[in-house]
């Protein structure tokens, strides 16, 4: 029958005493008073209803009962530690498997750089990347199906259950075919193309939401001729001349030679903040701390490069 008065703390004190063999050394190692050490050992004897030590001068000499308790307590604490580790690993905590979520537009540069840095720090770490929309990624994060997500936010979210770390800021630009007359513009106002056909990402994507906000700010209703579910299809549609689109500057380096990005006039620009997000309750987990550190270093490298 379990005795709730025989606690793990008392067993820990007992095992430390068995190792040190004196009250003073045990108290020093545990940063406790000798009175507290003596009280814990005496309490164990009371709850076990048997003596563990006999007095020999000023020292306590362990009886066979104490030696038996020492062996069994070590086994118990070791098994408890294993149980905790296996439970945490099953839940994805402290495992060698890292589940990262990202929006599509970050997989061309930022995410590969962060993954490479993580792998350099821990070659045994297995990283699983999920790419999707902001909405889907937040859902997976709160369901504990992702450890960390990197998304685009137009404004800080006031949610104490989440921790946010901004990496860098970006803006949308007009994507046009390279042989289009607008390709020669150094910048453009949305008002100048308000009646032109546009290809859009489906709702739920961060960029799609920011495109709509950009048009709303300019008080323009876009002439949407097609919606697509990924940025690659969108680039392809623009290159064929089906319509223009608004895309983040961060994808400029992966555009084919058939599409060009034209900056918007200052009054039409809307800021995107690329942000790492994790659950506040999991922020101290080693692999999440390691990824947060890499995000800090990556953000610093971008600032230093300016």
TrEMBL record:
GO cellular component assignments: protein-DNA complex
Q: Does the keyword Membrane apply?
A: no
Provide the leader sequence positions.
none
The alphabetical list of record keywords is:
DNA-binding, Transcription, Transcription regulation
| Gene Ontology molecular function: any one | DNA-binding transcription factor activity
Q: Which residues form the HTH lysR-type domain?
A: 6-63
Q: Which Pfam families does the record cross-reference, listed alphabetically?
A: HTH_1, LysR_substrate
What's this protein's family per the entry?
Answer: Belongs to the LysR transcriptional regulatory family.
Q: What PANTHER family does this protein map onto?
A: HCA OPERON TRANSCRIPTIONAL ACTIVATOR HCAR (PTHR30346:SF0), TRANSCRIPTIONAL DUAL REGULATOR HCAR-RELATED (PTHR30346)
Q: In its UniProt entry, what is this protein called? A: Transcriptional regulator, substrate-binding of LysR family protein
């Amino acid at each position: 029958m379990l005795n709730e008065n025989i606690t793990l703390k008392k067993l820990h004190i007992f095992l430390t005493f068995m190792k040190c063999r004196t009250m003073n050394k045990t108290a020093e190692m545990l940063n406790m008073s000798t009175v507290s050490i003596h009280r814990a050992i005496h309490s164990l004897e009371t709850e076990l209803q048997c003596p563990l030590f006999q007095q020999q001068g000023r020292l306590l000499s362990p009886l066979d009962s104490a030696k038996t308790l020492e062996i069994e307590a070590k086994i118990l604490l070791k098994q408890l530690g294993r149980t905790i580790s296996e439970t945490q690993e099953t839940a994805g905590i402290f495992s060698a498997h890292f589940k990262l979520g990202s929006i599509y537009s970050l997989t061309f540069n930022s995410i590969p750089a962060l993954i490479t840095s993580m792998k350099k720090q821990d070659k045994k770490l297995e990283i699983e990347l999920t790419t999707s929309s902001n909405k889907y990624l937040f859902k997976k994060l709160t369901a504990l199906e992702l450890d960390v997500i990197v998304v685009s936010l137009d404004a800080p979210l006031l949610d104490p259950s989440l921790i946010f770390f901004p990496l860098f800021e970006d803006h949308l630009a007009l994507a046009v075919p390279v042989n289009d007359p607008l390709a020669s513009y150094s910048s453009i106002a949305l008002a100048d193309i308000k009646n032109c056909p546009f290809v859009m990402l489906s709702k739920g994507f961060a960029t799609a939401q920011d495109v709509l906000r950009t048009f709303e700010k300019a008080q323009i209703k876009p002439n949407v001729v097609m919606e697509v579910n990924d940025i690659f299809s969108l680039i392809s549609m623009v290159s064929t001349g089906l319509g223009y689109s608004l895309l983040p500057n961060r994808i400029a380096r992966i555009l084919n030679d058939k599409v060009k990005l034209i900056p918007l006039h200052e009054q039409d620009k809307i800021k995107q903040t690329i942000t790492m997000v994790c659950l506040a309750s999991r922020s101290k987990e080693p692999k999440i701390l390691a990824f947060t550190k890499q995000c800090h270093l990556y953000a610093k490298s971008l600032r230093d490069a300016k």
